[in-house]
TrEMBL record:
Residues in Ketoreductase domain copies: 32-211
MF terms (GO), sorted A to Z: oxidoreductase activity
Keywords carried by this UniProt record: Oxidoreductase
Family membership: Belongs to the short-chain dehydrogenases/reductases (SDR) family.
Annotated GO CC locations: membrane
Name this polypeptide is given: Ketoreductase domain-containing protein
Length: 276
């Protein structure tokens, strides 16, 4: 059974304040239509539930058909079971979206996976999988859906990155690299489509309480910071997207660590060596 979003997560619905620099504001908010990858679990699932509360029709993307069916029933959305790591997955999603939704106001790329452990013994196949799902899949899906948004002069793109992509986390070398690619992708894309009605928002969450850690085969073991609820991440990233924010850090204080990293890298490295 789907549990509807908790009241705390739904507080203030979509347009709620969060941190992040602004990009040009565009129309189409709240969105009438959305494509949500990773909608079968965790952050993507919570985002789909929040969007449904705003009467947004979504195409839910994932691999787990039963989990997608549950979210589709709870949101009255459409679903497509597709492995985004396989060639052509993005084409299937884009054409199904055009068929079922027509114009797409919002694209959320939340599908992703993790991997932990020393890089020197990480299987090459794991590195390939990370790059395929965390980097190539969102880039190819944006590539497939961007032309229609540009033609309309309206659209919002929300990429789910990670604080690991901005700061680099030991024991998560390949994952950090895959999410760092999203930082460059989001920055460059935002700059390229500026003034054409498209906003590009990158969400950088810290640890989030989802099946992510179980799936990667290594539990989250740090005592601090504690993992935050996926519903809170979904709420903040949607609010930031509504405003056209460039970045949404959840929790917000993580952006301070990134500022230290940028302004005083050697100090940051010393602190990271102490605190991990
Ligand atoms: N949890 C955290 O601590 C954390 C922190 C920072 C950033 N993030 C990022 O947040 C995003 C969402 O993660 P989450 O925490 O919500 O994890 P999650 O609960 O494990 O959900 C991952 C989602 O990605 C989908 N997915 C994975 N591989 C796929 C593939 N090959 N094709 C299609 N869909 C695929 C899964 O679909 P199926 O289950 O249907 O296969 C699932 O819906 C990821 O990009 C992750 O890197 C997570």
């Amino acid at each position: 059974m789907i549990v509807r979003p908790r009241a705390a997560a739904r507080e203030g619905s979509l347009p709620v304040a969060s941190s992040g620099a602004r990009t040009a504001s565009t129309g189409g908010w709240p969105p009438r239509t959305a494509v949500v990858t990773g909608a079968s679990s965790g952050i993507g699932r919570e985002a789909a539930l929040l969007l449904a509360d705003q009467n947004c029709r979504s195409l839910l993307v994932g691999r787990n058909g039963a989990a997608l069916d549950e979210v589709a029933a709870a949101t009255q959305g459409h679903r497509i079971a597709v492995d985004l790591a396989r060639p052509g997955g993005e084409v299937a999603v884009a054409s199904r979206a055009a068929e079922l939704l027509g114009e797409v106001d919002l694209l959320i790329c939340s599908a992703g996976l993790g991997a932990a452990g020393p890089f020197d013994v990480m299987p090459p196949s794991t590195i390939n999988d990370l790059i395929a799902v965390n980097v190539l899949a969102p880039m190819l899906l944006v590539r497939a859906m961007l032309p229609a948004m540009l033609e309309r002069g309206q659209g919002r793109i929300l990429l789910v990155g990670s604080v690991a992509g901005a700061l680099g986390v030991r024991g998560e070398v390949a994952y950090s690299a895959s999410k760092a690619a999203m930082v460059g992708f989001a920055d460059a894309l935002r700059s390229e489509v500026a003034g054409r009605g498209i906003s590009v928002t990158l969400c950088l969450p810290g640890a989030v309480d989802t099946p992510f850690f179980h799936r990667r085969g290594a539990p989250y073991v740090r005592r601090w910071p504690r993992p935050i609820p996926a519903g809170l991440v979904a709420q903040r990233m949607l609010a930031g997207t509504g405003r056209g924010d460039a970045e949404v850090w959840v929790p917000r204080w993580l952006s301070a660590a990134a500022r230290v990293h940028g302004a005083a890298p050697s100090l940051y490295r010393r602190l990271a060596g102490v605190f991990g």
